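ugh ok fine here u go
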Amino acid sequence: MNLPNLLTISRFLLIPIYIVVFAGGERMIPAFGVVVLAGLTDVLDGYIARKRGQITAVGAMLDPLADKLMLITVILSLLLTGHIPLAAAILMFTRDLGMIIGSAVFHFSGRKTVPANWMGKLTTVLYYIAILFIFFEAPFAQGYLWSVVIFSFVTTMMYMIQIFAINRGGDKSQGGSNEMTTEQTGS
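structure:
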């Protein structure tokens, strides 16, 4: 257990805090503050892990999971309160749950997985910006959200291509482990 992994775990703990704050009524700004705090811990854990050479396989797996669970929680809360359309929420849920399940299947079957890269991080940042616009009811928020949803599917396709490429033709005994180098990790 190191500091970057503790920061990642703190993001899991911020999820119920967000739910309580958001459910408290018209507290959009404090709820968004919790989302921003989660985003800052994401940036900080990746920076510290790279800077101190503390990148771990556990951190590489937990980091995107924490991001996705926070994002799913926020999406669900915004959907239930009518701030985002059902179709957009379904697409976002489908993509994120598919990535979580797919990564887990590859990881636990001993296959190589693809750590977060700049496109995945950019997608997360763009989603946080969309959430900002939605929380503050910007008139263009829905259009921007849809553009991010489309972009997120492009990044997903790129991840899938990378995952299948690094696992093509190899089996578990041919180096299909989950070991990663510092150069491979994006967080």
